[in-house]
UniProtKB/TrEMBL annotation:
The chain crosses the membrane at residues 236-259. Keywords: Membrane, Transmembrane, Transmembrane helix. It comes from Anaeromyces robustus. The lineage of its organism: Eukaryota, Fungi, Fungi incertae sedis, Chytridiomycota, Chytridiomycota incertae sedis. This is Uncharacterized protein.
Amino acid sequence: MYYNTTLILILFLLYIYFVKSIHLNSIVFEYYDLGLYTQLTKDFNDYSIKNNLNITLELTVFSQTNSTVLTNGDRVTIQTLLANKSKRYDIYLYILTHIPEYGEHLMDLKEYVSPDIIKLYSTEIFNETCYYNDKIPVNFSFSVLYSNTKLLNKYNCTIPEIWEEFLNTLQIVLEEERKLNNTNLSGYTGLFGDDEGGSNTIYEMLYSYRKSVELPYPDLKSPEATNALDKDNDSIYGLIYFIILTTLSLLVVLSSFVIN
């Protein structure tokens, strides 16, 4: 009798777990697993338990540490899954650079998100860069500039706020350090990779050269863009900009997701 009761209880719990509960499977390709999506998954599951939603989100992460698919295989994998209308994953997370390839599969989630929440992130720059066919991403990212305050203080320099100050400070520090035979010092590491990260850096640089903060992104043929490239082409690291700009498309890197 005890075993029959136990068996019935197990079957009942399995029924609740697999039939009455909702399981969502998500997948993300990241060059570096920074734990962002793992934390988002944990936060959602905690929220689901607290509010008795009976929904469990599972996350599969592919990164450099556990997969070799990230060269080009990540986009191929997603394209294959979506093209075949695979039901294996419910949520796909990826960088916005590839959104033109997956955009037709995107589901508009605005009707499921409170307008008050959207307003928290609704800024001019967000509205210009974060929407695709009037659909919103799950999150957005931005870059920051770190300064070596020890070197800045050493040469009585302040943290630069505009590119002209940045270039002048860069030149001062590098020239003085080279006098001390410190030839291994890099003046600026701007993430100029041969991927979307490099184009993102360039796009941010061009955006910072607009005439005022109220203006949108300058056109690539605008005087502002020409001025930016002319200045940087004469700078210590300008040649890097010039070479990369001729080979990369300029796209903003954000994370987005799609639901089958």
